[in-house]
Amino acid sequence: MHDFIHTIFYLLRGVAGLAVLSAVLGGLAAALCFKLRKRPISWGKVIAFALLCGWLTAMLGLTLRRMGIGGIGAMGYNFHLFRAFREAWNEFSLQVWLNPLLNTAMFLPLGVLLPLLWRPFRRWHAALAAGLGLSLAVEVVQYVGALGMADVDDLFCNALGTMVGWCLCMMVLNLIEKRPALAGACAALPVLAAAVLGGTFAVYYLQPYGNLADAPVYDADLSGAAWTLDCKLPSVGETAGVYRLGAYDRAACDAFAYGFAQRLGVDTESRPPEYYFDADYYDGTSMYSNHSDFFLKVELADRSFRYDRYRHDEHYGELPEAALREKLAAFDIDVPDHVTFGYEGDGWHKFEASGDVKGDALTTGILRCRVTDAGEIVEIENSLALCELAKQEAVLSPEEAYQRLRKGRCSDNE
Prior knowledge:
Number of helices: 14
Largest sheet: 10 strands, antiparallel
Shape: globular
Order of helices and strands: HHHEHHHHEHHHEHHEEEEHEEEEEH
Distance between the termini: 34 Å
Helix content: 40-55%
Strand content: 15-25%
Number of strands: 12
């Protein structure tokens, strides 16, 4: 949750100043309008209009900039409803969930402020039409101006956010006006939305293995495809081992980075931790650097990491396997004996294992390291993992897999 909030503040930072200025000017304009009409100033409506102006400026600043929300620069369109939710479900990372969640949350203020400003918007269909209309206008401008992706999921999320905000506003207004039955009815959508979101996350974390990031997000149209089968496919599936690799939590990752810095020779005894490296955390990734000696990036889920020593030599060389293993041991990296070794050129050496099983252990992944002509390791990319057998699981039969492909159930990159 800390990473999610940090990302929201990061996105708002670029538009906050202009949004505040717009809010001030909007509030002054609303107050002046009351004066010109010689009516008592309704400060509640002045504040609401100021907030609406600030929100509108911030929303347009986020959605109509070149890179779009979250820095995703894809151009084009998407007409597959709920694709964004399916992608978020498959990958289940903060970066992907930001798309539907922020598009929903971004239009909450619109649903809250419209009923407070103008009574016609206290009807649900008027608020829904306003949310859909504004969202559609933004999507059209994004598409025509090549400012992002025109997405039907954005329309849905923006409309949902508008209506959740409207329901929350009307629930409070009905409670103030002592109409508890209507207030309860207005609470239905926010409660349902929260329950669905919470249930989605609960179901995911109760799964033993999570999801496949490249699983299909919609059925491909294969109506024009001709299928031929030259053999009879087995209808009975087999079993395969599921292997487990322990993940880091943040404290364990910090301890790994601390030990790594010590092995690099960084003075960690006479200086406080905040001096010998800075730590930055985002969406399951931890990054460490002291801005002079090294940079270390660690993925908590699989404990893979990348190390780069700053200002290293531009001349690189080759080392024999035995000598390189000895130098890697100084980094506390123990490379299994059965992995393959090769030299790629320009100082890059590679150890690789492609699912090698020995007993109840599986070794997979690649370890690459770059060596100077003086024999010093200055870069490491390590995704080599030793996993332990957790259990045996059933695998789809070839016949069932074939039928799923015929139905278009294949991932986008296949």
